[in-house]
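pipeline: protein-struct stage 2 | run 1193 | Hexapeptide transferase
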Amino acid sequence: MGDGKPAILFLGAGGHGKAMLDLVLAHAGWRAAGVVDAAPKVATLLGVPVLGDESLLAELARSGIGHAHPAVGNNAQRVAAAGRLAAAGFALPALIHPSATIGHGATIGDGAAILARVVIGPDAHIGRLALVNTGAIVEHDCVIEEAAHIAPGAVLTGGVRIGAGAMVGAGAVIRPGVMVGTGAIIGAGAAVLADVPAGATVAGVPARPMHQEHAS
């Protein structure tokens, strides 16, 4: 069945679902089994059938599809979707685009997604359900905690730590050794030179808390 490739189901038929399907269609090791969505609006995604809504999950797991991926860009929603997939009986493998470069000693957690042209440096750790988006660079010894999102083109220099559920915007650059707290948001194009507290939003060059910018 499927030329011996393991089948993988996707939950999410939006833009991020399209990006994840593109990853699997470029990957010789997987076969896209289909897509489900909470409220399907299209019949196919990149030529892969949208099978229906999430009421199908248990049936699809029983049919022999053993793997699934929560193809949801929002961090909290991705964690929730992963929980529903796991409860239905699916394994959640990490997915790595064949054009990505993974350094020696790097580790990648279950359900993580590493998209096209990403560079993961040696001894970096990518946590469960983390998303490292197109062209991002995560240098040596960085730690990306659970369900954080590193947006396209962001650069994390050596030894950076990104807290669970945090968001690093497109094109942002983070100085070596900086710690970004749980749930923090780094604006697109920011230059982060100092630690960012949990839940804070920073932006600009150099990055500053947003409320300070508004007050000035």
